[in-house]
Design goal:
Blueprint (H helix, E strand, L loop, with lengths): L25 H7 L21 E5 L2 E4 L4 E4 L14 H13 L8 H13 L5 E5 L2 H16 L3 E6 L11 E3 L5 E5 L6 H4 L2 E5 L3 H11 L3 E6 L13 H13 L3 E5 L13 H4 L5 E5 L9 E5 L1 H4 L18 H17 L2 H21 L5 E5 L2 E5 L8 H6 L2 H13 L2 E2 L8 E2 L6 H20 L1
Parallel strand pairs: 3-15, 5-8, 5-9, 9-10, 10-11
Antiparallel strand pairs: 1-2, 2-3, 4-12, 6-7, 7-8, 11-12, 13-14, 14-16
Length: 446
């Protein structure tokens, strides 16, 4: 059992306190939802707490079912770069809602959003929309296998590309090995087709390509890792990955589900100076609604049905509401270009947290790029998943729970990224820093 919390309805809050309902009663939720959630990280088990159930969001704030407000550093897991309920995005959704939800055939907004992506990212010449980033990665891998007539997929430890069977694996023993299943229900024969090596490790990369080069269809990587916490890659390592992929006919896939339009307009690929063959996207390009996309070279993308033999379909692919929200969001980002300000805010928060840790004499690493960051309770820099795993997760849990009690909501896992939005301010950042400083002193004293 996890520790009890004071979240509304988790035990026996009255219906009156929750607006006449008990929508987030742990008993009522778990009676119908497995674990009371629809995605495991929302269960708060990594920090030993009960789930927080939210009612609404506006700007940089969210409100729970009890009416308590939290300064939000989750921001829809990075989807809401403009903040909650941004007016132009909300209006676009409302306009489309009045015209219909699922129309069953192609809409003009699909072309508009696809054109925007192609214009923003030079590596993308064609686009296929999907309902999620998971499905986008599935399509990208299928395309690569069809193009190369090979079967194995090279992945990097700590990166997350959705929950499809072939990508839900962990590294086996040895420097570079085929993957082992990291989830029940994934056949070993499927996991065997995935090769997993450490992130930011040139020796492991060279070894894997040397051993499996004739069998590798593609290499898929987060160009900035965000699912072991934020880990910034060595650009030389990424460029070596590109060179090896080119030399051995391996399709290089950048999973920019998180970084696409988060760190700059377009993706991080131009910044790191590496051009992938395929790119997967999600989150921000849907403006807060479910979406995924795979895009890339025309010759590769044209292998998709109906033009080619690689099958993909979906009733909700290119959903009109997501298209409208995405067009509106990217339009605002293109016009307002908030990235310099977001970079400054992210840097301010990272510097404040480092200073707070120094004053509290707490060993803390703050990995930050742009408006993304993660803190690790560790003496050593975090450059790969093993480093992240070695950090003190109990101290992280204590800090996360303390901040939440003080009205700041950060991801309830030590292996997730914090996200800022265009609606966050320097005052918000300083507020987080001051609270963290107070709590870090308490943790150190304990």
């Amino acid at each position: 059992m996890t520790p009890r919390s004071a979240e509304c309805g988790v035990r026996s809050a009255s219906a009156k306190k929750c607006g006449g309902r008990i929508p987030n009663s742990k008993f009522r939720i778990e009676r119908y939802l497995v674990g009371g959630v629809n995605s495991p990280v929302r269960a708060f088990r990594r920090v030993g707490a009960d789930p927080v159930v939210l009612r609404s969001g506006r700007g940089a704030w969210v409100t729970d079912a009890r009416g308590r407000r939290f300064l939000d550093c989750i921001m829809g897991w990075g989807s809401l770069i403009l903040g909650h309920n941004h007016p132009p995005v909300l209006r676009a959704i409302q306009r489309q809602l009045s015209r219909g939800t699922v129309l069953g055939l192609t809409t003009a907004r699909e072309r508009q959003l696809a054109e925007t992506l192609c214009d923003a990212m030079p590596s993308i010449e064609r686009v296929r929309f999907t309902p999620s980033g998971t499905e986008a990665c599935m399509v990208a891998v299928r395309l690569a296998r069809a193009w190369t007539t090979r079967t194995k997929v090279l992945t990097f430890e700590g990166c997350y590309h959705g929950h499809s069977d072939g990508l839900l694996v962990k590294r086996g023993s040895g420097l570079a090995t085929v993957g082992l299943s990291s989830s029940a229900g994934v056949p070993s024969s499927v996991a065997h087709e995935t090769i997993v090596v450490p992130y930011n490790d040139p020796a492991a990369l060279e070894d894997a390509v040397t051993r499996f080069q004739e069998d590798i269809a593609c290499a898929i990587v987060e160009p900035v890792a965000a699912n072991m916490g934020v880990v910034v890659p060595d650009r030389v390592w990424l460029k070596r990955l590109r060179a090896l992929a080119t030399a051995h006919g391996i399709v290089l896939i950048f999973d920019e589900t998180v970084t696409g339009f988060r760190l700059r307009y377009g993706g991080i690929q131009e910044t790191v100076g590496v051009k992938p063959d395929l790119t997967t996207l999600g989150k921000i390009i849907g403006g807060g609604l479910p979406i995924g996309a795979v895009g890339g070279r025309a010759d590769l993308m044209e292998q998709l049905a109906p033009n080619g033999p690689v099958y993909h379909a979906g009733t909700f692919a290119g959903h009109p509401l997501a298209m409208a929200a995405g067009v509106a969001t990217l339009g605002v980002l293109r016009r307002q270009a908030p990235y310099e300000r977001l970079e400054a805010l992210g840097g301010r928060l990272a510097a404040g947290l480092r200073d707070a840790a120094k004053q509290a004499r707490s060993a803390l690493q703050v990995n930050q790029i742009g408006s993304m960051l993660t803190l690790f309770f560790s003496e050593c820099p975090v450059r790969r998943f093993a480093d992240a795993q070695a950090a003190d997760t109990q101290r992280f849990a204590a800090l996360a729970n303390a901040l939440r009690r003080r009205g700041v909501l950060i991801p309830p896992s030590p292996f997730e990224a914090w996200f800022l939005s265009a609606r966050h301010t320097a005052a918000h950042v300083d507020r987080i820093t001051a609270m963290a400083q107070h709590e870090l002193r308490g943790l150190q004293a304990a």
